[in-house]
Design brief:
Its EC number is 2.5.1.n9. One of its GO terms (molecular function) is heptaprenylglyceryl phosphate synthase activity. This protein is an alpha/beta fold. About 35% of the residues lie in helices and about 20% in strands. It has a single domain, classed as FMN-linked oxidoreductases (TIM Barrel, Alpha-Beta Barrel), CATH 3.20.20.390. The protein is built from nine helices and eight strands. Strands 1-2-3-4-5-6-7-8 form an eight-stranded parallel β-barrel, surrounded by five helices. The two termini are about 25 Å apart. It binds SN-glycerol-1-phosphate. SN-glycerol-1-phosphate (1GP) binds next to strand 8. SN-glycerol-1-phosphate binds next to strand 8.
Length: about 240
């Protein structure tokens, strides 16, 4: 087992795995993910996310020492059992539901039970028009670099979000753009996620982003997925 500290502060992270509660993962592969030395396991997805399947996956991840976070896409799947709750606000959405609407509804219903210290807001910018998240959130993906940089600056300076998330889910993004975005962020942590299929790609994004999020390759090639942890941690920003 890799040596790692428990880390509940995203500013300390370099690598995270994102697991989809709507996908099957064997016990053996889950063990490899959880004992890989990654900084966190994020449970989140777009399709078929339910209280039942998130809780089932969470309870399996809980058998390991790795921090377990819920990335909230449906307030009905929230349960008081995670180390952190990552809450996306899709800055380039054309539908206010995904910027403040669902958030307002959730806080109105559950606000008095929320522990604000466990909530981490993510300013999302979704750049792959074909991913499910872009379609659901009606993201305006036809952005040039300056548009993206402006969203990043808004996340940091206007909204004071702790995280800016460049989301290319399903496709490998543009490392040059990720690098540019990093130059406009000081306090806000830059997450990159999308299309990482090899350790070399993970290393390339680790040179640009603070945190590299690895998703689907877990289900396609667990060996390569686990390799991304070490290379990201060995790569300097
Ligand atoms: C999805 O950013 C993550 O939210 C990871 O994307 O599944 O393409 O690795 P992939």
């Amino acid at each position: 087992m890799e040596d790692f500290r428990l880390m509940y502060d995203v500013r300390e992270w370099r690598h995270a795995f994102k697991l989809d509660p709507n996908k099957d993962i064997s016990e053996k592969d889950l063990e490899k993910v959880c004992e890989s030395g990654t900084d966190a396991v994020i449970i989140g997805g777009t399709d078929g996310v339910t209280l039942d399947n998130t809780l089932q996956l969470m309870s399996r991840v809980r058998r390991y020492a790795v921090p377990c976070c819920l990335e909230v896409s449906d307030p009905d799947a929230i349960a008081p059992a995670y180390d952190l709750y990552l809450i996306p606000a899709v800055l380039n959405s054309k539908n206010t539901t995904w910027i403040t609407g669902a958030h307002h509804k959730a806080v109105k219903a559950y606000g008095e039970w929320m522990n604000w210290n466990e909530i981490v807001m993510e300013g999302y910018c979704i750049l792959n028009p074909d991913c499910k998240a872009a379609q659901l959130a009606e993201a305006a993906t036809g952005l040039d670099d300056d548009d993206v940089l402006a969203y990043a600056s808004m996340a940091e300076h206007m909204f004071k979000f702790p995280v800016f998330y460049l989301e290319y889910s399903g496709t490998y993004g543009d490392p040059k753009l990720v690098e540019k975005v990093k130059t406009v962020l000081e306090d806000t942590v830059l997450f990159y996620g999308g299309g990482i299929r090899t350790a070399a790609q993970a290393a390339e994004m680790a040179r640009a982003a603070d945190v590299v999020v690895v998703g689907n390759v877990v289900y396609e090639n667990i060996h390569e997925a686990v390799k991304t942890v070490r290379v990201v941690k060995q790569t300097g920003l």
